[in-house]
Fold this sequence. Notes:
Helix content: 25-40%
Strand order of the largest sheet: 3-2-1-4-5-6
Shape: globular
CATH class: Alpha Beta
CATH architecture: 3-Layer(aba) Sandwich
Number of helices: 9
Bound molecules: adenosine-5'-triphosphate, magnesium ion
Oligomer: single chain
Amino acid sequence: MRVGILGGTFDPVHTGHLIVAEQAREALALDLVLFLPAGDPWRKTNRAITPAQHRLAMLRIAVDGNEAFGISDVELRAGGPSYTADTLESLAGERLDDEFCFILGADALADLPNWHEPERIVRHAVLAVAPREMQELNATVLNLPGLQARVRPFDVPRIDISSTDIRARVAAGRSVRYLVPPRVEAYIAAHGLYAGASPSAAGGGSGAGG
Ligand code: ATP
Ligand code: MG
């Protein structure tokens, strides 16, 4: 089986994630795309991350009805920070017949040298890279051992939606309709998520990778 993995904080999951996952599925002929929410992301310490239970609930709502989409909660169950390299390695160890593809935005690829042992990630998975607000790919990225041969850019419309922007809109009382799936929008409202967040909170960066 060909398995795509989309790691992230998903705080909250949004339409951009879903479109990227679907286009990667098609472009790389993936049988399954697993959304991999990060436990307690060790690289996003500048803001409070929404409790895992809410991020997971929103993901479940978002992937519901798509048979090719699933969720891996291994990093949530581990509690605390996990390294992507370790997670991929243990998934690869459990699923010996599967081929792995790690799906990520160009911003996350640019940040890859700062992750924990990125060469181990590249050893276990090809990297399907979606265009995003392009942070320059410096030489450090391209010099990662074995990286260039493992990168698979794929064709997906550039979607300028981010969780950071969604949190800011909710905090400002603005609409996020169509930026997230309808039931995710309802979930955010029902649980009062992001309402108290400061709209200027920088958040983001390159995601939860590590
Ligand atoms: P935040 O603003 O909190 O960082 P985010 O929108 O970047 O949130 P993440 O959970 O950090 O979402 O992203 C998970 C993965 O999905 C990363 O690899 C990221 O690059 C990718 N991604 C998220 N949104 C998009 C998008 N609109 N286009 C392409 N890739 C995206
Ligand atoms: Mg991000």
